[in-house]
Protein 1
Amino acid sequence: MLAFLGLFTIVLLLFLVITKRASPVIALTLIPIFTGILAGKFTELPAMIGEGLLTIAPTGVMFVFAILFFGILLDAGTFQPIIAKLLKIAGNDPIKIALATAILSMMIHLDGSGAVTFLVVVPALVPIYDQLGMKRITLACIVALSAGTMNILPWGGPTIRAASALNVPVTELFNPILIPFFAGLLTVLLIAYWLGKKEKNRLLGIVVDLAPQIDSSINPLHRPRLFWINLLLIFAAITSIILAWAPPHVVFMIAFALALLLNFPQVEEQKKRIDAHAKEAMLMASILFAAGCFTGILKGSGMMEAMAGTVETFLPEQMGRQLPLLTGLIAMPASLLFDPDSFYFGILPLLSSTAEHFGVSGLEVGQAAIMGQMTTGFPVSPLTGSTFLLVGLAGVDLGDHQKKTIPLAFLVTLVILFVSVLMGIISV
């Protein structure tokens, strides 16, 4: 009975979220409460929800302050000098332009927002691509690959969701795949080089001189005098998280407070900057805390354990032991079928629990999932608004963008997965 109710909970969640019949916050909160009551756990629900919220709290806090931290630094124009310098170095060489596109996209995506990355990078580079005669589809492809791979970072939406669903610290999920992650970034740079070389060969003999198209207007929010201090803050925050000097939520809380105080010391300015980024931060935070309700009830009621036990009886043992590898292989294509909330909160916990029944680490399933599901796959998925923003800003057709980018995005995922297998992070 519990296994059936668990499956019904997940299927109903997938149906309502994917078909947009209900928002993720509503579905993640009310569906498990309803099925928990059907399971006869009415009196135990508050304790289950409370336990789920406690486990999710550090991740939710980390996400809110990470968004605010990087948002403040973007407001302060921290990355503008780097953009100008990179484009000046790139000049009129398509190869250098392509590499600069990848580096800029990776850098801007530090805040974990695809929309911000596309809004900053694409409009800045479209005039350059047009003047050189480079294809805009190449621009969209490189930006997508760069942002998608960077989405694996600990404060990226998919990784936060995976850690929340599996009830593990986000650093425990991400840190072991740090080297494979860098291998993925290197692969993106190699792809950018290859695409740039193709463009250069195509344009041979017709390349014109180019003055980098940088907006020289003065933005009152920019703080050029604090450039190096802001960079130091970013470096200190990321280093502290990767080396586990302090919990991520503590790091970002302190880093945000320092960035806000240094760049916008006036109280009224601080309120305006927080308000400017509050919507995105609170929307994701509400989903994460609703997910705490969902996972708390599914695990506390025994539904998850019952489902995993049922799947174990039908799944061949050899296949069960390969669940992390299989998850890594399907993760990127799954971005075309499942939005991040339905996959990470509905499907991943079941895959993880099933793997543990076969004696395989459920953590490995989560690590394999973030190698592609709504990471490398998010900028090509029709289930995310960011994809349409990217193709709209670049002025390219969605189908053309997917045709060019999906095979390359899958390649990046395979490289990350392959390196993970070689290092023994993913069991085979």
Note: Residues 267-300 form the longest helix (34 residues).
Protein 2
Amino acid sequence: MLSATPLRPDAEGFFGPYGGQHLPPHLKAIMDEIGNAYLSIRDTSDYRDELADLYAHYVGRPSPIYLARRLTAHSGGARIWLKREDLNHTGAHKINHCLGEALLARHMGKTKVLAETGAGQHGVALATACALVGLPCEIHMGAIDIAKEHPNVTKMKILGAKVVSVERGTRTLKDAVDSAFDEYLRDPQNFFYAIGSVVGPHPFPMMVADFQSIVGREAREQFPKQAGKLPDVVAACVGGGSNAMGIFSGFLADPGVRLVGVEPSGVGRDVGKHAATLSYGKPGTLHGFHSYLLQEMAEGQPDPVYSIASGLDYPGVGPQHAYLKDSGRAEYYAVDDAGCLDAFMTLSRTEGIIPALESAHAVAWAMQNAAALGKDADILVNLSGRGDKDADFVADKLGL
């Protein structure tokens, strides 16, 4: 269940030059403790069996793969398939790693679990997992995102989580990370910071990728049975990069399968309103790890970021993705807000599936590239979440 994927860090948590632990000694010691605890239980039958049981009977795994026939016809080219992570309990891929992290926190005897959230999906999933294992949960969320993603805020509160509104800086995801980490530093011995993507210091990129690799393993087994071949392209949206690493992991060893990460170009680089880290960033250090970082305004300092999808507006990216970009194994492109909204509405009205705005970026790339790939090609899109949280926002924006 948690077997290694073809992309693993070295003993110091590096993927090539990216990752690691850029931390003061006392925090490095705490991260090492978490990493050692995780490695000590990862392959035990008790941990594996409990997590497998929860995936099957609580989350509802495996999530299906669906051929979007009407979306394919609309796009006029390659067949577009969807890995339906939106059908998971809590509505997104985030529950995959939140359950693993909550079980680890319980194993370590932690007294409170902390996290940041952007779109609220990680917050809902972690609040759900903490309710399940009986641990207090505190979620830090930017004030702008709280207003935008109000349905998820309500869910977190119903589930028993304390939601902290972050008023500093841009009042979005990066500032929520800073705020949650400040709270974590008050008592790192007893608190557990459940990072919501393949970002942060080692061991978190490794751990989150391990938990999310179930998406790729399922897809690698399912797709040939349904399509009679491997997909030509596997595409997923990329903010921090957890859902993309999850599905990419199943196909890393298949050189004939293109791996495409889709970032948010927002309303444009020229006006400085985007979050396309791999497209426009360069190597730098943020939140305890080394990776690509948006730093055009000031060397070494993260730029303000923007995306219509709150879960993608982060100025860094997981170190695995930086390594995959440099090695050429994965390709990264950007889709703007207009393309995202078009995909959101088109998928909703051709297939009756309302996607998360984050996932709609990957759907948009598939729609935009289907004709060039041709009708004999297959694109598998990781539909990482559903759009319940975004429905009111989109309706207001489009005047529906």
Note: The domain at 14-56+94-205 is CATH 3.40.50.1100 (Rossmann fold).
Protein 3
Amino acid sequence: MIDRIYKVYCYWRTHGTATLKQLIFRKLAYKLRRPTDQFPHPTEQFLDSKPDHNRAINVAQITHARFQAVTSLRTYFSPESPTCRVNLVTDSINSGSLFGGVGTALIFAALLANKLNARLRIITRTERAKPENVDHILSLYEIKLEHEPQFKFAAFYDHKYEFDITKDDLFITTSWWTTASALPSVPNEQIIYLLQEDERMFYPFGDDRLRCETILRNRDIRFLINTQLLSDYMVHDGFDNLATQGMWFEPAFPAQVFRPGEKEREAKRRFFFYARPNNQRNLFYLGIEVIEQAIVQQVLNLEHWEVFLVGKDIPAVTFNGGYTPIKCENFSWSEYAQLVGTVDLGLSLMYTPHPSYPPLDLVASGAVVVTNRFANKRDLSGYSTNLICADLDRDALVDALQQGVAIAMDSNVREQNYRNNGLLTDWQQALDGIIQQLSEEVRCL
């Protein structure tokens, strides 16, 4: 039993919650319908198997079961298409996956496809795409594709899923594992790896981290890096290939999406915490300890503040005095944007060099935000003076919240800081130079 739990844990650490859920659903459906003489899915076999030291399993089988998500894309060459294609390779574009990085990838892919007069094809690896989600995001950002998008499901766990490519197809990969799956299958010079975090930090030191680092050191592909802060960190940490093969950009926060919203005059002030307990880099447990202490010290006076926990997989939690916060999960992008427009003060932690999106979403919407320092992430006031950085220490973060409360309640200072934000507000402007350079370099009909 312990061995099985450990295997499930390892699979979850590699592939994430959404993929594990899909696997469980497949297992249930598969057991209900398959004949008794049919072999189980390879990953099911890996998770179901009891220790049998007398059964020999070869190295390839063991490695495949552990790293199934990096299974090569199954492709075949076809005659050249009259229309170039920009292929976006990602795990999923369901509602729970669209925040932050996946949304950025979709925006970049759409703008690049339009610049090249190309067709956008979205290739998902863990579940079938929902076209309405793409329509929702692009319409929200007022981006109209020049050609009808295509969708392809290329499940890593099933050999029957394959698709055609031409030598002129471009591929935008969105993680080290989608990049690893593309490298054996498509021309490497046609790959653009959209890097939005030091992905080594998803893992402890071990095989996962090593494989990730190997991909990050690849010298045959292009890299597009989310923020100069992350780019500087990676180059300083020895990834000199990113200095020569990489470009960085700053994200944009258009006013039609992120802006201060209307609240009832007599309503309590709103406190926002980015709560993702299964994403360890978001430091959920430190965060709730900080909130607890802020309530105890009356930094957050619950007579005047209501607490929102926004994220996914949030447990039932109560704070000092039995206070139950409001949980917000499974929001669409527009619902999320509407909520952050009503927030007065936020706490959003990220134990990596990237500033992450929620702090920037919040200050773009007029809120005051406390976040943490990490490595060269020391001061984010260039984005907004409503963005306060503190050391990763409970008391230091509580002190920063006290500063944040003072600014949030001073409408004149808060408004002036908001008006002086340094954030970009137009994705076309944010990516125009990069897209122009790529359009001159890449091969596309």
Note: The longest strand covers residues 269-275.
